[in-house]
Design brief:
The chain has 139 residues and is mainly α. It contains four helices and no strands. Helix 2 packs antiparallel against helix 3.
Length: 139
């Protein structure tokens, strides 16, 4: 993610060139001179920019969220494909259906209502198949 800003920090100053005419001597033996005066510290970034950075960190990375969603979708399609093959043969594994109910519970993000409606329909069908085996997983 690229952040462009038009505010430039002007509080940072460069180092003074060594050996300039009128500057302090380049070498002072230990104990001969007084302590050097420290210059005032200036902030590297204005405080208003810090709030924006903290807000961006709470949003998260869109690409990572999409990558997780694609991975979960692919695993869900694989599980549904294997159950479809079992249904065509007439021998559905109850353990596979239990695993699918657990996977469906973690799929809901409540961000897209249409997708959640499809997941609800799939979960209902899986629970009906489990009820045929006498299994009733908790909601």
């Amino acid at each position: 993610m690229r952040i462009d800003t038009t505010i430039r920090s002007t509080g940072i100053s460069g180092r003074a060139a060594a050996g300039k005419a009128g500057s302090a001597p380049a070498f002072v033996p230990a104990g001969m001179g007084g302590a050097a005066r420290a210059s005032a510290a200036t902030p590297a970034m204005p405080m208003a920019g810090l709030d924006a950075i903290l807000a961006l960190q709470t949003v998260g990375d869109f690409r990572e969220s999409r990558r997780r969603s694609v991975k979960r979708g692919a695993s869900m399609l694989d599980a549904l494909e294997s159950i479809k093959a079992d249904l065509l043969v007439g021998n559905v594994s109850a353990d596979r259906l239990d695993a699918l109910v657990g996977q469906l519970a973690s799929m809901r993000e409540r961000s897209e209502p249409d997708l959640d409606a499809v997941i609800d329909d799939i979960e209902l069908r899986v629970r009906v198949e489990l009820a045929k085996f006498g299994r009733f997983p908790p909601l």
